[in-house]
Amino acid sequence: MCEVHGDGRCPHFGECGGCRMQDAPYPEQVARKASTLETLFREVWRAPIAVEPSPAIWHYRNKVDFNFGRKWYDEKPPEGFVRESVLGFKARGRWFAPLDIDECRIGPEGLPALLESVRGWMHAQGLHAFDSRTGEGFLKILLVREAKRTGQRMVVLITGDGDFDRASFVEAVQCAFPATSIYHGIFRGLADVAFADETELLDGTPAIEERLIIAGAARELRFRISPFSFFQTNTLAAEKLYAAIRRWVAATTPTMLYDLYGGAGGIAFACADLVHSVHSVDTVASASEDGKYNAHVNGITNVTFTTDKTKNYLKTVIAQGGMPPGSSAIVDPPRSGMTPKALMRLIALHPAHILYVSCNPPVFARELPAFLEAYRLTGLQAIDMFPHTDHVELLASFSQPH
């Protein structure tokens, strides 16, 4: 295991493109994020914007994906030279330069042993990282997931087409990072994404289970997590996030709730007992299937799951006569935000209240004027889901004008 700096910083700080704030005390990080948000929204919101700190600031992430890549040389190697394969993250400001990573201070505990073991396995097996420039190589992504409340772990090796010694990979994982579930996935695209066109369970159970304890909720919630289903990456902060969303639902008292970009049902289940019904929509089929399973194990019967693009789902709702009176919507899109059609159709449906959950506030700020044409902005607050990074989770609430 690599040495950790005496001040708690990761030895890769400054070189890795991830944690840009590790050199600042955590309270200062939170204050910076609040100041950034207040500056971003000062034209529409004059009050302070509270940022709730994360309950954990080290090893808080329950999901990380490491890239297999070809080593970058500042001086171009001679023709025919085979670049060394590395396993890690991209260098800060240099997406083309992968780094060999030995440690990740915000990822699950135990990663150094896993990375060392998988790197050794790669070399022993004579395997190489996929090179998108040449189309050569096999290994693409090492995805690691950990359920913080149960301790269950999942490791997914994503490759291109081809064969490899599965038993030796399972052994390399289990001897260094005992896992509940180990998968192989095949992704045929060129992008560096943690996704697979096909998956094969190599060892253990098909999924891991996480649990959430949400203030005000009647029960502890259980969640099945499959390789690519969405789940908030900071479990303990997600409990704070869902509690805040639950308070908003309790205050706005909708009869029907639309949970757009709903993943495996985290938001829906946190609020299900407060409303008559919840419609959860997500584009990932496995997330919807996890949601149905999660509803069953939690004894929740008033949440329905639909696999569809949000823009298409909302088009169907419009065609069917719109949302019933007393409906509210929660929107939790990816970092790219809502598509223009999804945004336009949501506003056209005009639910009584909207809560926008944004992991990328600058993108939300660009969408905000469209909301303000039809709604009043009634609240802005944030939760720090991502300590040591520039990112923060923002909650913006809207109501119809009086």
The topology string of helices and strands comes to HEEEEEHEEHEEEEHEHEHEHEHEHEE
- Give the domain tally: 2
Strand content: 25-35%
Which topology of the largest domain does CATH recognise?
Rossmann fold
Q: Tell me which CATH architecture of the largest domain applies here.
A: 3-Layer(aba) Sandwich
Question: Count of DSSP E strands?
Answer: 18
Low-confidence stretches: 1-6
Main sheet strand line-up = 1-17-18-16-15-12-13-14
**End-to-end separation:** 60 Å
Structural class: alpha/beta
What report would you give on this structure?
The strands form 4 sheets. This protein has an 8-stranded mixed beta sheet with strand order 1-17-18-16-15-12-13-14, with helices on both faces. The termini are far apart. α2 (111-125) packs antiparallel against α3 and α7 runs parallel beside α8. The chain has helices spanning 26-40, 111-125, 166-174, 235-252, 266-271, 285-297, 310-319, 340-349, 361-372, and strands at residues 51-52, 63-70, 85-88, 90-91, 94-98, 139-146, 153-159, 181-186, 198-204, 208-212, 221-225, 256-260, 277-282, 303-307, 327-331, 353-358, 376-383, 393-399. Helix content is 27%, strand content 25%. The protein is of the alpha/beta class and 402 residues long.
Which terms would index this structure?
2 domains, alpha/beta, disordered N terminus, 402 residues, Rossmann fold, six-stranded mixed β-sheet
